Amino acid sequence: QNWGGKTKRGQRIKINVIGHSFGGETVRLLASLMAYGDEAEKAATGKDTSELFTGGKADWINSVTTLCSPHNGSTLFYVVDQGKLVNTVLGLVYAASGVAKTAQIGDFYDFRLEQFGLNGASTESQAESIINTVFSEGTDNAAYDLSPDGAQELNKKIKLVDGVYYFSYSYLTTETSALTGKQIPKSSTLPVLIIPATLMGRYSTNTKTDFKIDETWLPNDGLVNVVSARYPIGDEYQEYDAENIVKGKWNVMPTLPGDHGTVIGMNVGAEETHSFYDTLFKMIDSQPRDKKYYIF
Predict the structure, then answer these.
(1) pLDDT per position as a tens digit, 115-148
(2) Residue ranges of the domains in the chain?
(3) I need a labelling partner for 190 at 20 to 30 A (CA). Which of 44, 232, 246, 270 fits?
(4) What CATH code would you report for 12-72+164-295?
(5) Is 221 designated active site?
(6) Which of these is catalytic: 38, 59, 69, 260?
(7) Catalytic choice (38, 59, 145, 221)
């Protein structure tokens, strides 16, 4: 409430933002836009430019935390066709919601794609068809940004903000196969992620584009490569040090056991999930703060 405004004591109200999966790219971009704006948008819209793109609000955000986010894209984009990629994502949505695939997807998940006809009455097959159509129309969509090539283009638009804390969490649901030396999913992996984890776990050479892929890309959480979830290539970072948490660069947390759904409570109990977020919030709240700001 009153984000960016001031309290009765004159303190600027700042927020902490957290994003899971591609939501991590969303909150990164938000922080960058708040601080620096977007020159192309301002040139195109002139005096009608939304405040989202005008910049000058670097002190509105206290921290950015990303969970299992494809900062450098995902090799899943290379190893499955677009239709299977969409089907996997929809399968995870249904699994997370705990409902049958015959349910209308809009009853429990809002993709915010009403302009394309995806609404509360959409079934899984309708949603899959509509999303595939959106993803087929050029590169201005999340599917392209999910590719390592697209992610690099997106990363060029996103800048770190000096006064913001950045934290990243990655999860690992694969292990090294004694037979092949590649990565295979652990038995605890969500069923919907077993095939993606397997395919990503053996894709160590990019045969589709010039983007370099090697063995470091094999460990994954079933949708996102660990090396991608840690930090964006080219950004400043440090391994997490509880005694020296810094602003303006990534504080990369140790990789945790689990798959892409673990951090949002899938296949784990409520107590474990609540404990994770309670620890995260306490860690963020314990950082030194300027008295002229109120952290919400």
Answers:
(1) 444 454 455 555 555 555 555 555 666 678 888 9
(2) 12-72+164-295, 75-146
(3) 232
(4) 3.40.50.1820
(5) yes
(6) 260
(7) 221
